[in-house]
Amino acid sequence: MLRRATLDNGLTVLVQEEHTAPLASVWCWYKVGSKDERAGLTGVSHWVEHMNFKGTTNIPRDQVKGIIEQFGGSWNGYTWIDQTTYLETATKDALDRMLFIEAERMANCLYHPDDCESERSVIISELHGGENDPDQFLDQEVVATAFKAHPYGHPTIGWLADLETMTRDDLYGYYKRYYVPNNATLVIVGDVDTDDALRRAEQHFGKIPRAALPPRQRTVEPEQTGERRVTIRKPGTTAYLKVAYHSPGICDPKFYALLVLDAALTGAYGLNLWSSFRLPPPQRSTRLYRALVGKGLASAVNGSLLPTELPFVYIISVTATDGTPLAAVEGELVDELGKVVRDGITPAELVKAKAQLQARLVFENDSVTNIAHQIGYFETIAGADVFTNFRPRIAGVTLEDVADVARAILSESNRTVGWFDPLPVGTVA
Amino acid sequence: MTLTGIAPIRTTLANGVSLLAKRTKTTPAVTINIAVRAGSVCDPADAPGAMCLLSKVIDRGTAVRSADDIAEALDSRGISLGVTVTRHLFSFICTCLADDFDEVMSLVGDIIRTPSLPEDELETRKGEVLTMLRQDEDNPGVRATEALMELLYPAPHPYGRRSKGSAAVVEGLSRDRLATLHAARFAPSETSVVIVGDVEPDQVEAVVSRVFGDWKAPTPEPVAAVKLVPATARRQVVIPMMNKAQADIAYGFTTMARRDPEYYAGWLMNHAFGQYSMSGRLGDSIRERQGMAYYAYSQLDANVMEGPLLIRAGVSAANIDRAVASIDEEVRKLVTEGLTQKELDDSRRFLIYAMPRALETNAGIANYLQTAEFFGLGLDYDVRVPDLLRSVTLDQANAVAKKYLSVDRACVVIAGPYSA
């Protein structure tokens, strides 16, 4: 059972006992992501995340290495559009150590100027590594084209020019503004006693003062009124197509109907960003797999509908088979989507899509780490009860709901089409 | 720290299929992990990539089910069946709800035993593999690693071959050729079934007996081991990919087999060198201290035959020479000065204490049991690992580094925007 507590300084603490293994997973979530960045500082949330692994007042730089590994633990973090999070999973006797690390990370990170400079080139290397993959590069360009006002449009890693010019003060100022207890959620899941875990959380975090939070950006993305297109012609070997549609955020009931529609179109990935996307979806009987991969037009097709606080984009990605023109792939894809807009999905497809999603809910919650991720993720973007209510929400989706969301979302005026149309390798772009 | 151990139940069917089962109750789900000793080492000499292509089409029709039937059976239960080929194993892995276990086992058994390899499906899958080969051509990481394996394992060694093969070979492979290969290499004696999840071991045994008990096929000829000729001089290959934003470095050596007594010393040595915390000494130098790369690490892939120790880093064009020099420096220091006792102890402690995490999920346990079965490590391997690691001395770990690693015998491949 999930227990919730709020410390006097505003920190939300969520604890769930899971006694299946002698492990505990601790995640500390911050309501700050790339949507909170202003022009000129794109990528600052992610860079701050990197800096928060580089020593604190009470964890000297040379003692970072091994601090959790000595308990057999792993630690990591990630940043995305709505959130930044850090985790440790280790044997349960490391609970105090994990809480100590997270409390230090919240209040006492150092931001030594030399470390900031060194990390600048690490992050630019991460960006270049992503650009080496044409599919990832196209994704970034399509999302940027789909949004013209809202900061969901810029990549979480940031634009290169901003990464080249950002200063240590930019980083540290951002850290001090957002890394406060009243902007955070601490999640503890595992072989722990709830009362004991809450006591320890109070001991480690209770003295960190709350602080006023900066005003949030208020930009609302205006409704898209016509198709947008982006075509990238660069040397490469393979052609990629992406079609993005503005889509509902997690609190909009239409999200669940679109989730079911996506399962019918490309197979259900599930709802756990930490685990589900490592396992391909069951998709061979889906509409777009049959139409594109089954007919030999594509070697892969995937749908991406991610739970976000505000409306983001639903993206369908296709890898064209060698020699197949992108126009043929796009034509087939648009035809198939047209059918679903016109006729909706069948009762059998509805049953299958729901069965897939319900099975994924079992598969993606098989470890303390995965469970803790889900609790913290949804608490940060909407409220933990979203996570606990998935089953009835999915079960409640009707054929009419799916037909309605198909008509509302999959329109020409709401779509952004991206092509990576490769030039022969060796040509100058 | 005490470990009670996985303590799986192991039986062997009369025809030679081995079965390992472990009941868990974490989730109402079951992981099926079936491995056939028919990996890419079984590719015919003139057809590298044949097993990989077979893996793409084997689940697209059986004697009694069409491709559509199989797709429907899997999709309606939310199951994604992974069919993969490594050097030695042809694996079928999926997780299903416990209630679906019987029917899913029947389906997977059918796929393994009686694939029909329909011509139309084969043609479509060839198109997919050809596209994957084209994608690989444009991927600096894949290009660097494959070229390094070719350098370390020159023909006829199978570890040097691209497991996906080449476009010419893939295009030329017929249905009959794949069917013959399947008949020659898939047999009960080569098959091990691992089942982990919320299902009673008695039921598992009954189902597996029903699915595989009447399977008869002759034991294939073993694949002959190929004598490895270790490098005697340093070699470097550059694959210019001027359209890329950064380069991948693959740097490596041939080392030991998994059953070699030196393995545990090698495991610890590699862990301290290129894995521990943010990727060991390599990560400290190249990422943390010099800020040159998002990743820098090493991995030891000891296998049936002598496997490689691979060092990998992704760096900008301007930093390639400096990164290779830094790897050289770390290798030289490891060989001449060795690890410290603290480094060895830290890695040892981590690997022992990390075991509950590795064995938390059904998929994790199944993978562990399948590996132990393949290498013949014993049912109590998980219980013995801590002592096997504790028995390694600093001298042994450093001796392994000295024996296998040398800047003067390193093979180095650079793929990316670099033409020096």
What does this entry look like structurally?
The complex is a heterodimer of chains A (429) and B (420). Chain A is an alpha+beta fold. Chain A folds into two domains: 204 residues, Metalloenzyme, LuxS/M16 peptidase-like (Cytochrome Bc1 Complex, Chain A, domain 1), CATH 3.30.830; 193 residues, Cytochrome Bc1 Complex, Chain A, domain 1 (2-Layer Sandwich), CATH 3.30.830. Helix content of chain A is 40%, strand content 17%. In chain A, the strands form two sheets. Chain A has a six-stranded mixed β-sheet, with helices on both faces. A five-stranded mixed β-sheet of chain A has the order 7-11-8-10-9, with helices on both faces. In chain A, a hairpin with a 7-residue loop joins strand 9 and strand 10. Chain A is globular and about 60 Å long. The model of chain A has no long low-confidence stretch (mean pLDDT 96). Chain B has 420 residues and is of the alpha+beta class. Chain B folds into two domains: 204 residues, 2-Layer Sandwich (Cytochrome Bc1 Complex, Chain A, domain 1); 182 residues, Cytochrome Bc1 Complex, Chain A, domain 1. Chain B is built from 16 helices and eleven strands. In chain B, strands 1-2-6-3-5-4 form a six-stranded mixed β-sheet, with helices on both faces. A five-stranded mixed β-sheet of chain B has the order 7-11-8-10-9, sandwiched between helices. In chain B, helix 3 packs parallel to helix 8 and helix 10 packs across helix 11. The radius of gyration of chain B is 23 Å and the shape is globular. The mean pLDDT of chain B is 96. The interface between A and B is large, with 75 and 74 residues.
